[in-house]
Amino acid sequence: MTNVIVLFAEDRAAQGLAGAAEKLGGETRAVRVDGDYQIEETLDALVEFCRGSEVVLFANDTYSQELAPRLAHRLGGVCVGDGVDVSRVDGRVRVTRQVYGGKAQAVIELRRLPAVVWLRARSFACGAVAASATVDGARSGRRSTGTKIIERHVAQQGASRLEDAQVIVSGGRGIGGPEGFREELQPLADMLGAQMAASRAACDAGWVPPTWQVGQTGKKVAPELYLAIAITGASQHMAGISEAKNIVAINIDPEAPIFKHARFGIVDDYRKVVPQLREKLARRDS
Amino acid sequence: MRDATREIYWNISHVWLMYVLLVPAIAIGGWGLLRRVQRWRRGKSDATRFDRPIVRIRRLLDHSLAQRRNPLFHRLLTWGFIVLTIATIVVGLDADFGTSIMRGAFYLYFQSLIVDVFGAFVLGAAVVAALRRTRFTPILAAIFAIALTGFLVEGWRIAATHDPWAAWSPFGNLVAELVPAQAMLETHRTLWWLHLVITFAFLAWLPFTQMRHVVTSPLNIYTSNLAPIGANLKSVDFEQERLGVATLDDFTWKDRLDFDACTECGRCTDACPAHTVGKVLSPRDIIMELRDRAEGTSAIEGAASPEALWECTTCAACVEVCPVFIEQMPKIVDMRRHLVMEQAEFPEGMQGAVMSLEKRGHPFSGTQATRVDWAQGLDVQHVSAAKDAEILFWVGCGGALIERNQKVIRATAQLLQKANVSFAILGRDEKCSGDPARRIGNEFLFEMLAKENVANLTKHNVRKVITPCPHCFNTFKNEYPRYGGTFEVWHHSEYLEKLVDEGKLAPAKSESVTFHDPCYLGRQNGVYDAPRKVAGATIEMERSRNKSFCCGGGGGMSFVDEPADKRVNQERANEAVATGAEVLAVSCPFCMSMMEDGVRGRMRVQDISELMLGAN
Amino acid sequence: MNIVVCMKQILDPEVPARDFRIDAAKREAERGSASLVTNIFCENALEVALQLGGNITALSYGAESAEDTLRKALAMKANAAALVVGEGGHPLHVAQVLAAAIRKLGPFDLILTGRESGDWGAGQTGALLAEELGLPCVSFADSLEGGHPARQAGETPAPLRIRRQTEAGWEIVEAQTPVVVTITNEEHNVPRIPKVRDVMMAHRQPLTRFELADLGVASSDYYEVVELAIPQKESRCELLDVDGLAQRITEITAAL
Predict the structure, then answer these.
(1) What is the pLDDT of residues B169-188, one digit of tens each?
(2) Is residue A29 one of the residues assigned to a domain?
(3) How many domains is chain C partitioned into structurally?
(4) Buried-exposed string B153-164: b where 16+ CB fall within 10 A, e elsewhere
(5) C190/B contact by beta carbon, under 8 A
């Protein structure tokens, strides 16, 4: 089995792909795409490079996601994306992925080769990958490809939308005032690279800007990690975070409905817990 | 005594001039009224407004004549004018038709005494009215002048003729005492003509000002809606060119009569909960603006601004308080219909609710609750399984899908079970009754939901429905019959009261409980006592029963964010807290959410069923 | 500009987890009490097309019920609608069917799809459609400008300016038509609410229908779902001490 791992410049998430390749077995080479990425040109180059391989692995970045299905098509293979596991059964590659908005999990058997798979970040343990080859993402044999990326922009820190945030630190009525947000929650958010949010009660009280409001009549967010601090968890708030993957609840009230939806939690006063949490997280980082 | 009388036209010559002056007065006044009538007639048709004449006449007597909703001074003013008009007619009959009514006891008791007293009422009322407004408006000045000149004429006549019956006209007699001796005849004559000219001018002027209400208000009261307020919304004909009201042309004749009946008293605006918390909505201003606009012009731009229209909770406090039975709230909904159905322009929060209603049959997009979560552990059956269940327990979206309210539904179901009531539920097959869609203005979606629900209930042979939601209650009871759904509909407070009366359940033991009347149960459907009895509520807020202050959740308002300093629910919550009661009892899922939010832990908020469960 | 927007009808993704059931034998979700809705990204795509302007055809491949999706598209003022009745299938099959229908309905300057569907979320159909049609593809776009046909003979049409999202920010891509673009949501492409009058009119408009057999699409192997299950999630919140919580948080954020 010959596996190809495709890397785009400075893609740290790709480090997990080696583990996937290892699991599938066989020889693995990694190729890095250099130069200014252009869609059709890079696709052409990768088609040439990957011809003959049986498995092509990608990470979950934008370029990987848009190229993977088309690469598969050109090589007569199959693509499956957002995989969380791969395996080989009876010689065929199988990919596990979540479907139906995360409500179910499917195992998909690929019926053609090459199997082109893009994987969720961190689905496998970190392993070093060194590119042994490169392709030029900007040049192609063809004369005109019809599309050209003419501007590339990186979003500023903090200007990104709450709806796109991966980690959110959110406070509710129990915070008690703007100081709690400013002095306890914001430093925690800074440590985690998280965005700040709040329940309606806190926004109404004027403790935080209304743009922070998450809930039925606020923003609907879908982070990997949502820290609900001193938030009761009434259904109007839950309606805004129904897509959150991991909810952590810190609340002094053991009966608070948030605990029915949270994955992890602490029943205690946030004023005690949050400073301690920041301390522990700082120690882990160092 | 039998020949007591006075000489008509004493000291007046050239009486023919009076008849001459009468012509333009009546012509102008008549033309003014005619123009208004033509305007009404150019309006669209309305529901039947002339049925049940006995009831209508009764209403007319109560509200136009006895004027139950009006303060004393206005009632005296009205009766005063009626008496003076009768007196004038009597004079006219005697003068021009050879009758002899103004004679003897009648002349003394009525034409002298009663007329004098009621004339004084008119004078006094004009002064009271002016004091209330801190100034004499032109109309009040005219009324005052008419009454004053009347007394002056009388006084001068009494003095100049040494009237032997003067004592029977106490106020005229009083004036007579003060009349100077010089130029009595000339002054009398001048005053007589002055009184005449002012009165005739007033008649001519009447239809062009708010004073036209003396004609339009009784007409409006007679043709007012006899159904409960909750049944007042018009249905929409989807074959028409325009849906809802965009311009003045889209209003019905009754709407136009409503505009003209307005006395500008402002009670509707004072009662409006949105206005009370500082929002721009003013029902009076909307009615007055629409009245003064030319036909064909926009009803919404510059008259009833969208901002104001979207602040209305459809509580109908305005309708309830209006002394001349204008229906302000339904017109607001009519204008909303245009904005929603023709322009698709309405607040984002309401858009989300409407879209969710269309897609999944409930307005709470994002909820992770199911319609049967509340029933876990309770042995409650679906209608298809319990074929001989007597009653359908209609839960409602607010009850099933908002966590706090699920406890209320459980409590209600448990009470019904304790009383051995045979009931079943629709469970996941329940769809929104359509009330939010209708109040927001999407009548199309409402009709779709209504027809679906009626078909569904009919399919399951449902005859009786109990629901803990006043909005569903109102819609099922007053709005579904139009779509073929005639069910016997009970609000849970009514049914629980029935069970208490039958001795099957005990009412809640009264702690310190105050009850908040929900608009759609109380004011709009007349149910006030059942929930109080069931909840053991004895403490009353000032604004209670038909004057209850809205929780702020109706009309789609629970789906939008209000500015923090202009929250209807906050105003009401503060009022509840101020009673000092321990518990605020509610009987509506919207009220529950709104009051819990507003009260913020300062008192307990419980549904009447939760209170009652505690005693059973 | 002639635009075709591919729109998929799916089970309501907001159905609460407790009501969500799987048919283990068929390996798909059970309908249950869930409503059928149009995939949100497909609606975003239609909105983008409406804002760009042109002659817009809404195309759907699915059950008869998908007619609802097309009526809603017509109510939003798409100009025409076409339905291919069939059972759907893996993304390659869907792409082949859509390509065949597009060849019959076309030619088109712009082909729009949503970035992925709210049910299976494979995110491939648009890309595979581009391959089937032999066209370039730009993914994750949220707004489009320009691209209108040349006004005079000999003039090249203005290129399409496409703004598309990346995980780091966004990019502007210039494209010559014809091109396939997949659309993602953004605050400016929230689908418009149709006017009720348009909803009523939409029901009277003609709908082009294709039977699968008309399109001559060969069956093909691509992938097969061999297992589908609802993972047993413990609904109990794991109560931890601060140390344990810090550890869990670190684990979750490190994977991002």
Answers:
(1) 999 999 999 999 888 999 99
(2) yes
(3) 1
(4) bbbbbbbbbebe
(5) no
